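4.2 Preliminary Data

To establish feasibility before requesting continued support, the project team ran the inverse folding procedure on a target of 698 residues. The structure was first converted into the token representation described in Section 3, and no sequence information of any kind was made available to the design step. The complete token record follows.
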């Protein structure tokens, strides 16, 4: 009896005298590795932050940014956190990315299994929500939770559905849902929008989601302004990715201690750049400095000690760094950062040390192509003082003399020139159009349109317009090759020139030689102006433009909002049969073929490029200078809102953009092109004008 009792399982591993009793199934921790014990994840590693969900009329939209944070490091910047389940359901996740990948693989396999049955059934959003609720609750009950919050959305029986499930199995459904930090600051915005308009359209829902994602980007240290959305309607499920929200930090400079706060905010963005993050924070902190010389001041701006650095970006991380750097005041990018050409950057002396250090840390070799740009500006100023005020071939004319030259030329050639004000600028200056014809009193011919000085600092473009007017009027009807060219051009077409599209900005270059925009007053008074070549209704607000008032590429309040753009649009419409629109800019030695705003080329791109190639061959034969011809996003950068794209989209077949001398990163003076370059620039550009006139049918 005693032997039997002592051998029972109940008493196995029983207590020794003075020891604690070990219950059946107890495992000695020293033997754990030998019998397969497992240690659970105690905390997530790579995580994603907020997910937003919103019901609209006929569907749902789920959004999540694409940042994966490795602890406190914004390490991964292209992680997808929304998933299409099938044509009626989608999910978004917050939390640990590895757990999401596990759950994603399970769901994908179940969807495949369901499709293999081919019985006409598929997971509905409610059934998926119910199953996932049980899975997460079961994992929690087994002390092995999935460290995620899931938002399940879709359309079932024609009705939108949104559900929320967290890692311990708490679940509910609601027409507006937000997880993570978004539950505190985005959820109220979504709820207010839905209550005010429960039947909102998809476009309204997308706009509200974008507003909330911007708020999260500004306020959440683990958020990014690049995100993706899943949209589910009765027509199916669609993933839109990536979407980049325009951001604007400049209003913050009106806040006390802005420099510190702004620098800290941007440092969170740069923290994702791995081991180089910490050293780069020095340069970012400098971005927040308030303008030392506000751009509404009439005192001449000195560029003493400013250097031009030429850099080449070789990967997307370097492009992202340059884009962040570009947001800061007083750091002037002469080109938008791209992977296809060098970027020239004007850096003030107070920031040189830190910017150079950060470029080295980013492994971006740079070249100082101008040691002190104020010296270059002063040299140009002295040259202007020493030349005749009306000499367009060896001198740049100031605004007053520019207008005077146009008036005198129109009087001297009154039968060939019609000078007309097509509108007023923001400051009330005339925007002049010069029509050059064999006889201005004859019936209209098909038109060739040439626009110059949309960007104020590009002085050489105005000189090219004036020089072309001079050549046409003085050589028409005369013998010799030049006379033959001018005669053909004017017998075949009427030529319309807008030699100074931006008179306010051009006049302001006497104060700030490198001013680019017009002079519109903005909300931030120290940041006036709109980039006229981002204001036209050609994918307005898209790539290469900014909503930041202080940016050189600020696009304006709305498409075609600026009087200068409106005047040009009306004038081209009045001209009638316009065959070509040539938008003259500098610098980079390029001829751009539509479209500049997107990777999609114009349907007749190949034809336009062939015509452009021949024109640039004619240009090269004058002085041996080579211009590259191609699609803007491929050989320069994407830029929306351009005049030439606008007119191409509105029926002007042969639309091009010139980028005149010099080439980017060539060690030359960029926008401050020496006056000695005026004469050759006029002649070579005119040769290309003749080639266009010769090739384009009347």
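Position-by-position output of the design step:
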């Amino acid at each position: 009896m005693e032997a039997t009792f002592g051998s029972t399982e109940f008493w196995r591993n029983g207590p020794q005298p003075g020891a604690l009793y070990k219950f059946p199934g107890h495992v000695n921790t020293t033997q754990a590795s030998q019998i397969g014990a497992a240690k659970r994840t105690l905390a997530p590693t790579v995580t994603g932050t907020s997910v937003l969900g919103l019901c609209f009329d006929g569907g749902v939209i789920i959004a999540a940014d694409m940042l994966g944070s490795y602890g406190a490091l914004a390490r991964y910047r292209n992680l997808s956190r929304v998933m299409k389940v099938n044509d009626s359901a989608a999910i978004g996740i917050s939390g640990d990315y590895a757990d999401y990948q596990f759950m994603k693989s399970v769901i994908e396999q179940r969807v495949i299994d369901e499709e293999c049955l081919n019985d006409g059934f598929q997971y509905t959003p409610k059934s998926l929500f119910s199953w996932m609720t049980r899975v997460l609750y079961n994992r929690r009950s087994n002390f092995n939770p999935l460290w995620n919050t899931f938002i399940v959305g879709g359309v079932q029986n024609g009705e939108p559905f949104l559900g929320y499930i967290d890692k311990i199995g708490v679940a509910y459904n609601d027409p507006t849902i937000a997880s993570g930090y978004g539950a505190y600051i985005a959820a109220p915005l979504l709820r207010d929008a839905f209550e005010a308009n429960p039947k909102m359209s998809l476009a309204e829902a997308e706009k509200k989601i974008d507003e909330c994602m911007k708020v999260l980007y500004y306020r959440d240290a683990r958020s990014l302004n690049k995100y993706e959305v899943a949209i589910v309607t009765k027509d199916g499920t669609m993933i839109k990715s990536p979407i980049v929200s325009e951001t604007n930090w400049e209003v913050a400079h009106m806040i006390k201690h802005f420099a510190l706060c702004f620098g800290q905010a941007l440092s969170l963005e740069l923290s994702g750049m791995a081991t180089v993050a910490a050293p780069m924070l020095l340069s970012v902190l400098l971005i927040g400095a308030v303008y030392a010389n506000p751009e509404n001041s009439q005192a001449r701006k000195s560029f003493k000690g400013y250097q031009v650095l030429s850099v080449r970006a070789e990967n997307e991380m370097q492009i992202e760094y340059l884009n962040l750097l570009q947001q800061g005041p007083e750091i002037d990018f002469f080109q938008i950062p791209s992977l296809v050409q060098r970027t020239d950057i004007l850096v003030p002396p107070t920031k040189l040390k830190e910017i150079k250090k950060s470029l080295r840390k980013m492994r971006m070799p740079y070249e100082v192509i101008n040691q002190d740009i104020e010296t270059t500006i002063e040299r140009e100023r002295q040259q202007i003082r020493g030349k005749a005020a009306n000499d367009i071939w060896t001198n740049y004319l100031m605004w007053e003399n520019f207008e005077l030259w146009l008036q005198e030329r129109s009087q001297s050639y009154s039968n060939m020139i019609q000078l007309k004000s097509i509108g007023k600028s923001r400051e009330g200056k005339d925007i002049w159009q010069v029509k050059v014809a064999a006889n201005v009193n004859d019936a209209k011919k098909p038109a060739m349109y040439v626009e110059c000085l949309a960007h104020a600092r590009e002085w050489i473009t105005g000189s090219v317009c004036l020089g072309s007017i001079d050549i046409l009027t003085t050589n028409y009807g005369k013998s010799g090759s030049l006379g033959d060219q001018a005669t053909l051009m004017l017998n075949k077409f009427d030529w319309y020139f807008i030699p100074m599209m931006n008179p306010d900005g051009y006049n302001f270059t006497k104060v700030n030689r490198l001013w680019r925009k017009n002079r519109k007053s903005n909300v931030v008074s120290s940041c006036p102006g709109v980039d006229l070549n981002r204001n036209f209704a050609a994918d307005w607000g898209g790539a290469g433009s900014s909503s930041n008032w202080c940016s050189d590429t600020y696009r304006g309040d709305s498409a075609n909002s600026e009087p200068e753009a409106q005047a040009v649009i009306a004038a081209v419409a009045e001209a009638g049969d316009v065959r070509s629109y040539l938008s003259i800019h500098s610098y980079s030695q390029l001829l751009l073929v539509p479209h500049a705003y997107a990777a999609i080329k114009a349907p007749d791109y190949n034809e336009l490029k062939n015509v452009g190639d021949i024109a640039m061959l004619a240009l090269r034969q004058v002085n041996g200078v080579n211009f590259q011809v191609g699609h803007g996003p491929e050989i320069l950068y994407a830029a929306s809102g351009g005049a030439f794209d606008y007119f191409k989209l509105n029926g002007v077949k042969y639309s091009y953009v010139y980028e005149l001398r010099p080439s980017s990163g060539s060690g030359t003076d960029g926008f401050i092109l020496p006056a000695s370059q005026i004469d050759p620039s006029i002649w070579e550009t005119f040769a290309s004008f003749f080639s266009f006139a010769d090739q384009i049918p009347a």
